[in-house]
Design brief:
The protein has 180 residues and is mostly beta strands. The protein contains no helices and 13 strands. Helices cover 0% and strands 56% of the residues. A hairpin with a 7-residue loop joins strand 9 and strand 10.
Length: 180
């Protein structure tokens, strides 16, 4: 199959953007900002698929500014690599990996609090037993055992900006599909 390449450049100004504000009691409301949001960046993706391999690489570099500060929750870069392999000598088996990196992310309007850049890796092996309708999967999520936030609470009340993602986690699954 043919390789694919995609690249998108963007630049826009959003007047009166809706932003989240947290009051002194920790109550979150959404209001129109008093300044425009300036957004510019480049998004790229490349992919290739062969008979037994598939590779996808994506990366984004962006600059999102509100009041001359980075937009809370918007990292300057993100990247991921996915690779799938199905060996010809073991057709029922498939290996899949995902490596993801995210740049340092501002978490409040003044950019005085940020989440550090991080890298995670997941790996999964699966075995399909089509005659029985079974799929066995085993893997490891967050193989690097990276401490990072699963999702950010921007402009958080009381400094509760982070929500810890799970540590290294081993998985085992069995799926049965009834064919009726």
């Amino acid at each position: 199959r043919r390789p694919g390449l995609e690249c998108v450049l963007y630049h826009q100004n959003v007047h009166d953007p809706i932003v989240e504000q947290v009051d002194s009691l920790g109550i979150s409301t959404f209001v129109n900002a008093d300044a425009p949001l300036q957004m510019q960046g480049i998004e790229t993706r490349a992919q290739w698929q062969g008979a037994h391999h598939a590779l996808s690489v994506a990366a984004t570099w962006q600059r999102h500014l509100l009041n001359d500060n980075g937009l809370p929750g918007s990292p300057p870069w993100m990247a991921n690599v996915q690779w799938r392999w199905q060996p010809r000598w073991a057709q029922p088996w498939t290996a899949h990996t995902l490596i993801r990196g995210v740049g340092e992310t501002p978490l409040n309007n003044s950019n005085t609090v940020s989440h550090p850049a991080y890298l995670t890796a997941n790996i999964e092996f699966s075995c399909s037993l089509p005659g029985h309708g079974l799929l066995l999967t085993m893997g490891c999520r967050n193989l690097t055992d990276t401490a990072y936030s699963g999702w950010h609470q921007v402009n958080a009340f009381g400094g509760r900006f982070y929500n810890p993602a799970p540590p290294r986690t081993f998985t085992l699954g069995l799926t049965w599909r009834h064919r009726g």
